[in-house]
């Protein structure tokens, strides 16, 4: 039970109530002692009135008055005259004198604790104000033992009462905590366990019901988390199914393209000048398509092949990309330009970087053509002290907000209607495999610019 939240709350409540009672105990004992001594002074004052009303008093009556007041003598001071009103033999010396007239709370608490722990019977003198202004002061001498005995009885009553209050308070708070906190928390935990059994089932997502603000906030946060998790699991399942389908399509497409590759060998022997000029590009395109199918099959196994790093001329590779895109542009009013130093040599995988630059240029072409406006696409490159920098800039309409928000995320970052957003995700992964970075440098109504940075040093 002590390992539960409600059990620990029960124990802590009892402890804190007892601690509060202990803090109350000191002033309570001081107050009880003060009242006890004040009562003895009032009894002594009443006893002295019997003597003041007559000239003489019988010794037996005087002894009885002192016994009833539980004091040995009574002295009054009136009109600056001190007078011993009642007296009897004192059994010993006075051990201490207590003046109640100007005693502070701290002094009263200190004297009460001293008296409570001092078990030795002592003779004490007590001074105070007479009741009803019957003089300047009244003084009595009395034994301390009856006072200590009364204080012990009072302390025991306080402790017993404190224990009862602690138990009752703890039980009430225990029941309240179980009802208001523990039960709702257990309900949330039970719902989490139900959801964990089938997280894909949207019906198991928690429905916030608590009227306690903090618990409701926790339920709403849990609902958001479960909703996102369920959506992610459903998306992963769709991606897995799509991956299997793509792998099967790529397998068959690779076989078809391999056959087409054999046919292009005959085309290369044609004497037609136009065919001779275009045949190498057709062969290169089919070769890249076969390579892409093989890469897709590897991607279906969650294995993007590591880049094969070689030193090559970037201007020649970009020229191939631009020539292929010009064929796709046809008669549209869209220009392509290159700004690559002819001698720029970079280290990377030519096939993968062809895909990277080709995807970026293709995306820019589709965006401009889709807008129905004229435009320009430029591929530029430079090198700094640490990296080769390649920029693909266009004058298109820019990326929509959703595409910028989910950039480089598959099936979420599509920039055009009907697009799946796979292109940029693949490009980002290929660049990362080179140890580089891909970022959207800018995007507005005036166009977009993607920047690729490929490190010159060895990849970590």
TrEMBL record:
It catalyses: ATP + protein L-histidine = ADP + protein N-phospho-L-histidine. InterPro entries: HATPase_C_sf, HATPase_dom, His_kinase_dom, HisK_dim/P_dom, HisK_dim/P_sf, Sig_transdc_His_kin-like_C. Keywords: ATP-binding, Coiled coil, Kinase, Membrane, Nucleotide-binding, Phosphoprotein, Transferase, Transmembrane, Transmembrane helix, Two-component regulatory system. It is an enzyme of class 2 (transferase). Pfam families: HATPase_c (PF02518). One of its GO terms (molecular function) is phosphorelay sensor kinase activity. Residues 215-242 form a coiled coil. PROSITE patterns: HIS_KIN. The chain crosses the membrane at residues 6-26, 154-177. CDD domains: HATPase. SMART domains: HATPase_c (SM00387), HisKA (SM00388). This is histidine kinase. It comes from Salipiger aestuarii.
């Amino acid at each position: 039970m002590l390992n539960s939240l409600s059990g620990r709350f029960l124990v802590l409540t009892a402890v804190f109530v007892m601690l509060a009672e202990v803090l109350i105990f000191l002033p309570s004992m001081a107050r009880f002692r003060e009242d006890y001594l004040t009562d003895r002074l009032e009894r002594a004052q009443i006893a002295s009135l019997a003597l003041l009303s007559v000239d003489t008093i019988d010794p037996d009556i005087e002894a009885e008055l002192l016994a009833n007041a539980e004091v040995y003598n009574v002295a009054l001071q009136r009109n600056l005259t001190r007078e011993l009103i009642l007296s009897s033999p004192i059994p010993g010396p006075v051990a201490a004198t207590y003046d109640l007239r100007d005693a502070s709370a701290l002094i009263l608490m200190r004297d009460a604790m001293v008296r409570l722990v001092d078990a030795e019977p002592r003779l004490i003198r007590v001074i105070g104000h007479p009741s009803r202004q019957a003089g300047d002061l009244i003084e009595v001498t009395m034994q301390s033992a009856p006072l200590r005995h009364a204080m012990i009885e009072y302390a025991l009553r306080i402790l017993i009462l404190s224990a009862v209050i602690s138990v009752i308070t703890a039980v009430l708070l225990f029941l309240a905590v179980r009802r208001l906190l523990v039960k709702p928390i257990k309900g949330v935990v039970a719902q989490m366990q139900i959801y964990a059994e089938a997280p894909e089932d949207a019906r198991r997502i928690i429905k916030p019901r608590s009227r306690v603000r903090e618990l409701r906030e926790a339920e709403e946060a849990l609902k958001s988390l479960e909703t996102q998790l369920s959506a992610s699991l459903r998306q992963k399942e769709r991606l897995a199914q799509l991956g299997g389908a793509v792998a099967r399509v790529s397998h068959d497409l690779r076989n078809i393209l391999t056959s087409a590759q054999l046919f292009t060998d005959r085309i290369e022997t044609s004497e037609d000048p136009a065919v001779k000029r275009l045949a190498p590009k057709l062969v290169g395109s089919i070769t890249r398509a076969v390579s892409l199918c093989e890469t897709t099959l590897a991607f279906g196994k969650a294995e993007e092949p590591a880049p094969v790093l070689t030193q090559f001329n970037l201007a020649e590779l970009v020229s191939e990309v631009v020539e292929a895109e010009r064929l796709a542009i046809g008669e549209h009013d869209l220009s392509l330009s290159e700004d690559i130093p002819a001698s720029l040599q970079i280290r990377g995988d030519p096939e993968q970087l062809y895909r990277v630059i080709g995807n970026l240029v293709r995306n820019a072409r589709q965006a401009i053509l889709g807008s129905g406006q004229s435009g320009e696409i430029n591929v530029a490159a430079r090198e700094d002290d640490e990296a080769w920098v390649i920029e693909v800039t266009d004058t298109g309409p820019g990326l929509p907000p959703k595409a910028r928000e989910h950039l480089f995320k598959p099936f979420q970052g599509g920039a055009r209607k009907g697009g799946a957003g796979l292109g940029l995700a693949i490009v980002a992964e290929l660049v990362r495999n080179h140890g580089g970075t891909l970022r959207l440098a800018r995007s507005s109504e005036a166009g977009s610019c993607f920047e690729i940075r490929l490190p010159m040093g060895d990849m970590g």
